[in-house]
Amino acid sequence: MSLRVGRAPSGPGSQRSSRRERPLRILHAPADVGGNAYGLSRAERRLGLHSDVAVVAAGPYGYEADIRFDLDGAPRWRRLAARASLVRAALSSYDVIHFNFGQPLIPLWLHGHVLNELPLLKRAGKTLLVTFQGCDVRPVECCFCTYEHCRRENRYRAPNAARFLRYADRVFHLNPDLRKWLPGSSFLPYAHVDLRLLVPDQTSPADGEDKREIVVAHAPTSRDVKGTAHVLGAIEQLRSEGVAVSLDLIENVPHGEVLRRLRNADLVVDQLLIGWYGGIAVEAMALGKPVLCYVREDSPADNPFGAELPVVRVSPATLAPELRMLVSEPERVSSLGRASRAFVERHHDPDSIVRQVLSGLVALPR
User: What is the pLDDT of residues 76-134, one digit of tens each?
Assistant: First the structure.
């Protein structure tokens, strides 16, 4: 598709004058992993700002975007042309560029060196923000990912991060462990859940008289990263003991289907290896579902929320015993569900997070 943007004002002083007369314009690009960019963008719109999300590839889960290029499998010249059009749009039509998944608009990687458009945008007076989310900066030796393309990209992650740290006005990370490779960056909670739309049901799935099994949902985007083998093993162990529990393994379905199945679950297991919860856990908690997850807490910075975090801490070794206890404690499950919803309202509201992102950089409506 072609990118249509407004014509840039002409004349030496007209662009500055135009900026004073129109709302601040923000571009989120060139990726949107887990809908985080879209959640921020809609919150910015609710503030009265102009905010768009542009992605260079359609993701597999159906997240929305305002500008979309389907470049997977496209020839190199077409991919470069599309990315160049995003740079032109950033220069002519936007004031703030928020890069997502640690990606610039035009990444040039060669022999371990990284070049991109950041100096050009900086000289043009743009405010530059970037959010790192995981495999965009975490070295492969610290990750459980087995994708070949991740291994090829590994040598470029550190120089790419260094370039963003040099040119960006603010650098954010969504997982606390990423601070190790992003000195000076700030932790940012997930901001992809619209709390007005994602609300708990009045009754729990377990309330029906005919319900005989507790449903445990698990939705891995990567089985290796999430530790899915341990989840399968725990459920198999419990069932062999006669515990009334079943697993809903949610994979390769659109985001709307994921939410529907989370709503029908009683408990949700997120990941068991990385050390922090993901976007799926936030959605589950917003629906009032208790979440079980491995949370690394070797130092206070590993868990910015401390004891307030209502996630049930588990490891591969403790998952089965913890599930066994929860199955027999419906009142605890209900209490955890209420605490989980309240936690998301306090810490994962995009309308609050966007003020954290922009405060002090731009004038915001009160």
Answer: 888 899 999 999 999 999 999 999 999 999 999 988 889 999 999 999 999 999 999 99
| Total-model pTM | 0.90
Is residue 88 within 8 A of residue 119, CB to CB? The reply is no
CA dist list (Å): 269 to 95, 185, 243, 298, 322:
40, 29, 17, 21, 11
- How many angstroms separate the CA atoms of 133 and 175, rounded? 6
Q: Classify the phi-psi angles of 168: left when phi > 0, otherwise alpha if psi is within -120 to 50, otherwise beta.
A: beta
* 5-37 residue pLDDT tens: 433 333 434 444 445 567 799 999 999 999 999
Supply φ then ψ for residue 85, to 5 degrees: -65, -30
Q: Please determine, for residue 211, whether its predicted confidence score (pLDDT) is greater than 70.
A: no
Higher per-residue confidence, 169 vs 9: 169
Which residue is listed with tokens 């530059």? 128
- 3-state helix/strand/coil string of the chain: CCCCCCCCCCCCCHHHHHHHHCCCEEEEECCCHHHHHHHHHHHHHHCCCEEEEEECCCCCCCCCCCEECCCCCCCHHHHHHHHHHHHHHHHHHCCEEEEECCCCCCCEEECCEEECCHHHHHHCCCEEEEEECCCCCCCHHHCCCCCHHHHHHHHHHHHHHHHHHHHCCEEEECCHHHHHHCCCCEECCCCCCCCCCCCCCCCCHHHCCCCCCEEEEECCCCHHHHCHHHHHHHHHHHHHCCCCEEEEECCCCCHHHHHHHHHCCCEEECCCCCCCCCHHHHHHHHCCCCEEECCCCCCHHHCCCHHHCCCEECCCCCHHHHHHHHHCCHHHHHHHHHHHHHHHHHHCCHHHHHHHHHECCECCCC
Which domains does the chain carry? Answer: 14-193+350-358 (3.40.50.2000), 205-347 (3.40.50.2000)
Contact criterion met (CB below 8 Å) for 289 and 266: yes
Q: Which residue has the tokens 């729990």?
A: 204
